[in-house]
Amino acid sequence: MSGETILVADDDAAIRTVLNQALTRAGYQVRVTSNAATLWRWISAGEGDLVVADVVMPDENAFDLLPRIKKAREELPVVVISAQNTFMTAIKASEKGAYDYLPKPFDLTEMIGIIGRALAEPKQRHVGPGDDGGDKMPLIGRSTAMQEIYRVLARLMQTDLTLMISGESGTGKELVAKALHDYGKRHHGPFIAINMAAIPRELIESELFGHEKGAFTGAQSRSTGRFEQADGGTLFLDEIGDMPMDAQTRLLRVLQQGEYTTVGGRTPIKTDVRIVSATNKDLKVLINQGLFREDLYYRLNVVPLRLPPLRDRAEDIPDLVTHFLRQAEREGLAPKRVDIDALERMKGYPWPGNVRELENVVRRLTALYPQEVITREIIESELRTEVSDSPLGTADGGPADPSIGQAVEDNMNRYFRGFGDDLPPPGLYQRVLNEVEYPLILAALTATRGNQIKAAELLGLNRNTLRKKIRELGVSVYRGPRST
Q1: Can you give the residue ranges of the Sigma-54 factor interaction domain (predicted)?
Q2: In CATH terms, are 5-147 and 159-306 the same topology?
Q3: How far is CA 82 from CA 12, 21, 104, 110, 305, in A?
């Protein structure tokens, strides 16, 4: 038995009782109170080895008390608990110097584990960027899935660890990266984002590292790359799975050596950036296909963070809808309200486009419907339109197999929407053909179990032409059993 004393402060008598019993069974001495004044009296008298405190107490907010605790007893770990399960609660807990944050209701085993680690670890001072963010809410949701996201982000705020965010399209990967930057130690530096899928392959190295005048045809002057632009801040590499092999090799060298050279340059340039990458692909599959470097994967995937699809956190939909309605109202659109039955229907829809699709639907509702209250019937009509327009579902919500042409059209529509009011770089026609060619040849080789003669016949190509394409594109010749 450890014998250390845990100070518990919570206005809820049931939580005080449960924690008292559980911590006592775990071998700790426990003192409980319902108010901040008593807690502060114990702390200032030198009592207690760890504090468990609710954010909201009848006489004082724990976030107001925390700075006094850290000033008086810097090494005293504080675990914050709260029913205000928002991103900002987790961030404020980290900024104010809390050891950890647990949303209510919490798991007692997890709580005891956190207390044990806190008491065993060397105590370190937590220094926040000093801006509590006001009422700004960069991430929305109080679901269990989002609580874990908030906790991971709060732990990463004061580090420079490399983070890889995975998740389906539309789940908010760039928003998470931006929140990590804005509330982290590099918040005074720039946040630079680059989408690998939106840059021509032959220009990616120039985009990342810059180029010297005359480095290639059309290079009329020196150009700074994204690494140089992000110096002192965060570089967000979106759709990292689309990065070509040559650029992957150069990126790996930068991560290993902390320096790079511009295209056409010779002088190494030191880099000081935090790398956050994101993907909606399974990079391990790409590694097995020879399309992604395994050593780069482990360099980027120091801290993995998977964002849940919206269908797995449907309880967050009312908060998201409210947020998007307020946003639309601030932009000059008429105020709207969604009734309870309509919200329930939205919670039952699978949202293949995730939060981005939900935002688009809410914007249409505010722009196209004169009614102040959005009813279930209106939502049903809008969701039928969403399903009929989507290659991912049918009218009854089940999966559908789109034609190749429809799939390409839908993909291109999403691609263009990603640029907002701008247009993608020139050369789109050839880029699309190049992107289609690789999976087409790979699928043919897979279907014929690596038989190039049969694959050439299937594709309608000369065998020598197919061999040339395999070499040029770096297609892995598949000879295993055909998958079902």
Answers
A1: 139-367
A2: yes
A3: 11, 20, 6, 15, 23
